[in-house]
Design brief:
The structure holds 2 protein chains of 2 kinds. Chain A is α+β, with helices and mostly antiparallel strands. Chain A has 2 domains: 56 residues, no CATH class; 77 residues, Glutaredoxin, CATH 3.40.30. Helices cover 44% and strands 12% of the residues of chain A. Chain A is built from 7 helices and 4 strands, in the order ααααβααβββα. In chain A, strands 2-1-3-4 form a 4-stranded mixed β-sheet, with helices on one face. In chain A, helix 1 runs antiparallel to helix 2 and helix 6 crosses helix 7. The longest helix of chain A has 12 residues. By secondary structure, chain B is of the alpha/beta class. Chain B has 4 domains: 106 residues, Glutaredoxin, CATH 3.40.30.10; 211 residues, NADH-ubiquinone oxidoreductase 51kDa subunit (Rossmann fold), CATH 3.40.50; 84 residues, Ubiquitin-like (UB roll) (Roll); 89 residues, de novo design (two linked rop proteins), CATH 1.20.1440. Helix content of chain B is 40%, strand content 14%. Chain B contains 21 helices and 15 strands. Chain B has a 5-stranded mixed β-sheet, sandwiched between helices. In chain B, strands 2-1-3-4 form a 4-stranded mixed β-sheet, covered by helices on one side. In chain B, strand 3 and strand 4 form a beta hairpin. Classes of the chains: A alpha+beta, B alpha/beta. The interface between A and B is large, with 38 and 53 residues.
Chain lengths: 155, 555
């Protein structure tokens, strides 16, 4: 697919990461960090600039959990379901959040404010069970009661 | 250089930070300034000290006072009492029985550990290359480049008997030898830092707490096998690790320890970071190589092995973080020193992340051959709340369970293999009697089903079949023959899958059946979960139109 649109932001990333085939994942990382997700027109643009078929890029984007093709909710709540958290009742914590927000894991609230996800090990097993909010704030040693207090901070 | 009378080592490992370590450090720094002690007391931000349960932590030298679970409001008291009047604040200290002012080595959690890989973790500032160098850092690299031929380096690693710490335990020296013997101009060294095992964070701690030890190990490996470039493949979920490794690379280049003509020896080698993107299978070496090449992380057929045709089809050496971190120690202190630690066939140490139902969780490094009992009861301080030890999960989704009757098993590659589990990368999760083994097996299998890349049929189609049976058993719909069915399917999947993920996917199921068959039987025959974890009421399922239907029993 060809595109005439100019995307200076993406051009800058491409200049920094290079146009060779093995830079693709690094480019996608950088774009997602910039824009929060990977919009389709940007993927089309990358495809034409890097000379990689869009189908191949799509294959890569959908293979990896980390890449998102749609905009995220305002607050992203990630519940760690690593083994250490699991044996310390992460399932109970998840259930409490699901009831509080009225959505299941993998869904977004109707107002687009919160999304809830299960993730694999945040690497904070010493503080299990843990959740992470918006990818930066980590809360540990939670109980189904405590986690609601945490969520009330995010309005 | 400025001399301080007191050094306050504040842990800034990821877990202490998320427990509020930064707020405490800021408060402490403000209190020190307002007491006018800024020229006498130095705050050092170190990497992970290991006992993450106790975070945020601080160790004050020269006394060696260990403070735990600190909050910002504690800072004033510590400065006033300890730093000004010389009276350690007992209220905040680690409580070790029999000792009034216990130092790290007197606390049982630390006393039984032997730190080679984690030797600098919690001691130096990971963002300062000079602190690493001051602790004998890059001495091994200097020794290699000035006085050893590449073949001698390979021989030294062979002599040490070091085995790959990523899980399988392949002899590192042998692997290095294969790559070194390839006749090719371009060779690569890859560090596998794609720590995907849920419940394990050993690599994360090394990357965050002592990144230079990894770089040094990789550069030495590059010299030994004749490589031109190295890649560190690290999880995107570890932003702090990525940041600290990137900084370490920058510093090493500025010091002439990385890049062209390292230490004026004529040897050139550079390292780049490649970020993973959340795919467990990328921990498999050939999948990881595909991912570095910018492709979908699907495993390749072996042979050819990476040592002959790996990254960009060139000979490639690929080792785990912990394996590389052992290299500077072996070169600096000699293979003989290394072999004295551990057992004859499993020399050295292993880092474990001790988690689950144990009193003191955290990151530990122990000599191989130590018993599980020592780890759980001496280092970990036993099982909390009066519960009893039921089993330990070792090796993550590829490993198995060690039951209570094997508590005295030696933790080494052969012993673990003999009871059907693996060393794995270092996840060690302790369970008490409130954990249901069938539920745990289901948990791991669900993980593998989700993470299976879908390339080969046995793994893609076989693991969901096993999961279906387990789901049936744990919801009170188990049938006679289910156990045998699980065993048979599991064996087929492990024999026929393309890569390590599929080959080991059924391990947790087979291992729990082996040691806890009675639990499976009571789920199936009596429709009871002995640990009261599983919801054993058969659920009515809804069809597409929302009408309730009963699940048909499969004969």
């Amino acid at each position: 697919m060809k595109t005439d649109k100019k995307m200076p932001q993406v051009d800058m990333i491409l200049r920094r990461e290079g146009l060779s085939r093995d830079s693709l994942i690094q480019v996608l990382h950088a774009v997602q960090e910039d824009m929060g997700y990977l919009p389709k027109d940007v993927l089309v643009y990358i495809s034409s600039k890097m000379n990689i078929p869009l189908s191949v890029i799509h294959g890569v984007v959908t293979f990896y959990n980390f890449f998102k093709t749609a905009k995220d909710a305002e607050h992203v709540i990630m519940v760690c379901m690593g083994t250490a958290c699991y044996v310390k009742n992460a399932a109970g914590v998840l259930k409490a959040i699901e009831e509080y927000l009225g959505i299941k894991a993998g869904e977004v609230t109707k107002d687009g404010k919160y999304s809830l996800r299960m993730v694999r090990c945040l690497g904070a097993c010493g503080m299990a069970p843990v959740i992470s909010v918006d990818g930066k704030d980590v809360y540990g040693r939670l109980t189904p009661e405590k986690v609601i207090e945490v969520l009330q901070k995010y309005k | 250089m400025k001399i301080f009378r007191t050094h306050a080592l504040v842990c800034s490992g990821a877990q202490c930070l998320s427990a509020g370590g930064n707020n405490f450090k800021d408060a402490l720094s403000a209190e020190i300034n307002s007491a006018g002690l800024q020229d006498e007391v130095q705050i050092v931000e170190t990497g992970c000290m290991g006992s993450c349960e106790m975070g945020p932590m601080m160790v004050v030298y020269p006394e060696g006072t260990v403070y735990i679970k600190l909050v910002p409001s504690d800072a004033a008291e510590i400065v006033k009492e300890h730093f000004l009047k010389g009276r350690p604040v007992k209220r905040l200290m680690w409580n070790a029985s029999g000792k009034e002012f216990p130092t790290l080595s007197e606390i049982p959690f630390f006393a039984k550990q032997t730190k080679l890989v984690l030797r600098n973790c919690g001691i130096i500032n990971p963002e300062n290359i000079e602190e690493y160098i001051a602790n004998d850092g890059y001495l091994a690299l200097g020794k290699v480049l000035t006085s050893m031929k590449p073949q001698e380096v390979v021989d030294e690693i062979k002599k040490s008997g070091l085995r790959g710490r990523g899980g399988a335990g392949f002899l590192t020296g042998l692997k290095w030898g294969y790559v070194a013997s390839q006749q090719s101009g371009d060779k690569y060294v890859i560090c596998n830092a794609d720590e995907g095992d849920p419940g394990a964070y050993m690599d994360r701690s090394v990357l965050e707490s002592d990144p230079h030890t990894l770089l040094e190990g990789m550069i030495i490996a590059g010299y030994a096998v004749g490589a031109i470039k190295g890649y560190i493949y690290v999880r995107a979920e570890y932003p702090l690790a990525v940041k600290r490794v990137a900084l370490a690379l920058k510093h090493a280049r500025a010091f002439g320890l990385l890049g062209s003509n390292i230490l004026n020896s004529g040897f050139s080698f550079d390292i780049a970071i490649r970020m993973g993107a959340g795919a467990f299978v990328c921990g498999e070496e050939t999948a990881l190589i595909n991912s570095i090449e910018g492709k979908r992380g699907e495993p390749r057929k072996k042979p050819p092995y990476p040592s002959t045709a790996g990254l960009f089809d060139k000979p490639t050496l690929i080792n785990n973080v912990e394996t590389f971190a052992n290299v500077p120690v072996i070169i600096h202190k000699g293979a003989q020193f290394f072999k004295k630690i551990g057992t004859a066939t499993s020399p050295g140490t292993k880092v474990f992340s001790l988690a689950g139902k144990v009193n003191t969780t955290g990151l530990i490094e122990v000599p191989l051959g130590i018993t599980l009992r020592e780890i759980v009861f001496d280092i970990g301080g036993g099982i909390p709340e009066g519960h009893s030890f039921k089993g330990a999960l070792i090796g993550g989704p590829s490993g198995g369970v060690v039951p209570a009757e094997h508590l005295d098993i030696a933790i080494d590659y052969e012993s673990l293999d003999s009871i059907g589990t693996i060393m794995g990368s270092g996840g060690l999760i302790i369970m008490d009697e409130t954990s249901c083994m069938v539920d745990i097996a289901k948990f791991f299998l669900k993980f593998t089903v989700e993470e299976s890349c879908g390339k080969c049929t046995p793994c893609r189609e076989g693991t969901p079949q096993m999961l279906k049976i387990l789901q049936r058993i744990t919801s009170g719909e188990g049938m006679p023959g289910d156990i045998e069915n699980l065993e048979r399917t599991g064996r087929i999947i492990s024999r026929t899958s393309l890569c390590g993920l599929g080959q080991s996917a059924s391990n947790p199921v087979l291992s729990t059946i082996r040691f806890f068959k009675n639990e499976y039987e009571s789920h199936i025959n009596e429709k009871k979960c002995p640990s009261s974890v599983c919801d054993m009421k058969p659920k009515a399922m809804e069809n597409k139109n929302g009408k309730k239907i009963r699940v048909r029993k499969i004969a």
